[in-house]
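Aim 2 progress update. The chain analyzed this quarter is reproduced below.
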Amino acid sequence: MADVTKINAADAVLKVIEEWGVDHIFGYPGGSFDDVMNALYDRQNTMKFIQVRHEEAGALSAAAESKLTGKLAVTMGSAGPGAVHLLNGLYDAKHDHTPVLALVAQVPQARMNMDFFQAIDEGPIFDDVAVFNRTATTAEGLPALIDTAIRQAYKYKGVAVVIIPKNLGWTEIADTFESTAKNHLAPLYPQPDPVAIDKAVEMIKAAKNPMVYFGIGAKNAGPELKAVSEKFKLPLVSSVIAKGIVEDTYPAYLGSTGRPAGKSGVEPGFSTDLILWVGNDVPFSIFLFNKRAKVIQIDIDNEKLGKRHHIDLPILADAKTALAALAAKGEELEPSNFFRAALANHKDWRKWQASFAKDTEQPLRPEPVFAAINKYADDNAVYGVDVGNININFMRLIDLKPEQKWTTSGQYATMGYGLPAAIGAKVAFPDRQVFSLSGDGGFAMMSQELLTAAKYHLQTINVVFSNETLGYIEAEQEDDTHQPLSGVDLIDNDWAKVAEGMGVKGYTIRTFDDIDKVFKAAVAEDGPTLIDVKLTHDMPFTTQHMFIDPAWQDPAKIKEFVTKYQAEDLKPFSAYLKDAEAGKL
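Predicted C-alpha cells:
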C-alpha cells in the first residue's frame, strides 16, 4: 500500500478554505495561533495573510468584503482577548446576514478549563453571534469541521465559528480530505403563486396612492423594480442599505426613508394607501408609513412575512422573479396625482440640495465636498461608509452609478466601520478605486488601520469629516429627547498629521478653494491618502421632525425650522398633492 502524505492539521484547514475560493485571511498573530501562522507561511503562495492592527478591524473587513462580493470571507483571532476583539465585527456580519468564517484560537487542550494564561470559555461567547459554533476536538476532524462551517455560513448567511486548540493545528494528519466546495450550488427559490400575483395587480390598480418600499433583498432586481414602477406608476423608496439597486438619478427613485433619508423619500410614506414591500427587514419601518395602508410583501424567507408590519398579501418568492411576474400582468396605468406629486417633490429636493454645491461658508457645508467626490469617483468606485451623520450625507448627496458599490454597517450600525470596510474592499477589488468616508468620531475608533493600508500599499482615499461632535447622537439628544447635550463633544484633531505619521499621505480641506485641488491630488496618488475635511458643526436637515406644513403645524415652529435649515424653497408634500390635483404637475 502506498504511503499516505501527511500534513499538519492547520495546513489542512487552509487547504479546505482555499478550495472554497478564498485566497486571504484578515487577522492578527498570537501565540495561541502559531500553528495557523506557520500554515500561512507554508502556503503563502496560495493564501495571503492580511495583518490588521486590531482583530475587530479584521472581522469588519471580512464582513464588508462578504457584503460587497456575496462570498465567504475569513477572519481570525487568538485565544482570549483576540477572540473577544472579533465579536464586534462578527455581529455586523450577523445583523447584515452575510457569510463569514471566524477561526478562533484556543490554548492547548491540556490547558483548557483550568484558569490558564489567556484561557477563557470561548464557546459561549460566540453562541449568540454565530449560526455555527464548534470547538475542534480532534486534529483528524478539523478539515471536515471547517468544510461544515463554511456550508453552514453560506446556508444561513451568517457567521460560522471554529475554535481550534493550539495543539491540534500542529498535529500531523493524512492529507486525504476533499472539501464539498465543488458541490456548492446557488439555492433555488420558490416561484410566485400566480393567483397571488393577479391579486397584487388588482390591489395596485385599486389603490389611489400606491408605492414600492424595497430593501437589500431586491439587490438583483433593479431592472424589475423600474419595470413595475413604470407600468403601474409607483414611486420607489428604499431602505438605507438598498441604495444603489436603482440608480440615484432615476426620476421615480425617491431615495431612502428614515432619519438618514431625504425629505422626498420620507413624506410619501405617510400618505400612501398601499405599499409593495420587497425584500425588506428594516426594524424602524413600522414608524415610517401610514399604519392603515395595505401591504403586499414579497420575500424569499417565510419568517419575514409580516415580521415588521401587518400585511394583506404575502408572496413567497425571489424579488426579481416576483417583480417580473407583476410587470408582465395587467395594463399600464396612468400617472396618479400621488405619483406626479412624489416625483415633483423629489426633483425640487434635489434642486435644493444642489443649490449649496458651491457654498463657500466655513467650516464647510457637506454639499461642495460630496460634489467633488461625485466628480472624482470612478464609474466603478467602491465606498466603505462609516456610521453617523456620514450615512445621512452619503444617502442624500452621493449619486451612485450602476457599477459602483458601497457598504456600511446596516442593522448593527457600529461606528468605526468605514476604514476597515475600505481595506476589505481594496483587497477584494484591487483594481478599483476605493473610498472610506467617516466622521471624526467613527474614524478615531479604527484609525490605526491606516497602518494596514500603508503596509500593503492599499490605494484608498480616506475622507474624515471633522465636525468635533458625535453629530447623529447630538441630533437625537436635541430632537428626540430634548435634553442638554451630554458627552457628544469631540476635540479637534489634525488627522492629516496623524496619517503622515502612519506613512499615509495627508491633506486638509478648510476652504471651498481647497476642495477640488485636494481631491484631484488625492486620487492621483499611488498609495493610501487621508483627507481631513473641516466640516460645519450644523446638523443636516432633519427629516424626522420637520416643521414645514402650514396646513397643520405651528407657524412659529415652521419659521424657526425653515430659517435653521435655509429651507425657504422647500414645500410640504401636501402642497405638491394640491398642485397635482389642480393639474399643475
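The mean pLDDT is 96. The first strand starts at residue 6 and ends at 8. These observations will guide the mutagenesis experiments scheduled for the next reporting period.
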